[in-house]
């Protein structure tokens, strides 16, 4: 199964997160460079904006992480509390991230736990086998 086919099958995974965590507004699976790969609860334009903004926040978080002792600059999770709700960004699989917006009434602990559960399942769907070395003719 190709990555594109796997991404088409993501809808039910993203919907499951939204259904099991009340107050979820938008869910976006994005590539490290900010391209929306899958979404729930958002139109295409909103999903693309969230993916691009999430990529920028990921880059900022990497810069901050690089200043911490014993850090290699990796980003596991970013949480923002803003007027009207919350924004979550979590590393998913290699070179992909899960971004979620939620209303003020969201249970932050439940959201984090369910996102982590989803990331574990997404990793299985996005994983691709290692490439075999080329053989000399």
UniProtKB/TrEMBL annotation:
In its UniProt entry, the species of origin is given as Streptomyces radiopugnans
SUPFAM superfamilies membership: Roadblock/LC7 domain
Q: What is the protein named?
A: Predicted regulator of Ras-like GTPase activity, Roadblock/LC7/MglB family
Task: Report the residue ranges that make up the Roadblock/LAMTOR2 domain in this protein.
Answer: 11-102
The residues the entry assigns to the signal sequence are none
Task: Report the superkingdom from the record.
Answer: Bacteria
């Amino acid at each position: 199964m190709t990555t594109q086919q796997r991404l088409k099958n993501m809808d039910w995974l993203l919907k499951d997160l939204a259904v099991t965590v009340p107050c979820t507004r938008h869910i976006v699976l994005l590539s490290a460079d900010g391209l929306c790969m899958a979404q729930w609860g958002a139109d295409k334009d909103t999903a693309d904006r969230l993916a691009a903004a999430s990529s920028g926040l990921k880059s900022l978080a990497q810069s901050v992480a690089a200043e911490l002792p014993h850090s290699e600059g990796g980003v596991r999770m970013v949480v923002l509390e803003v007027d009207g709700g919350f924004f979550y960004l979590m590393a998913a699989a290699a070179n992909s991230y899960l971004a979620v917006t939620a209303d003020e009434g969201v249970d932050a602990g439940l959201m984090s736990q369910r996102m982590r559960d989803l990331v574990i399942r997404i990793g299985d769907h996005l994983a691709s086998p290692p490439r075999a070395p080329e053989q000399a003719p």
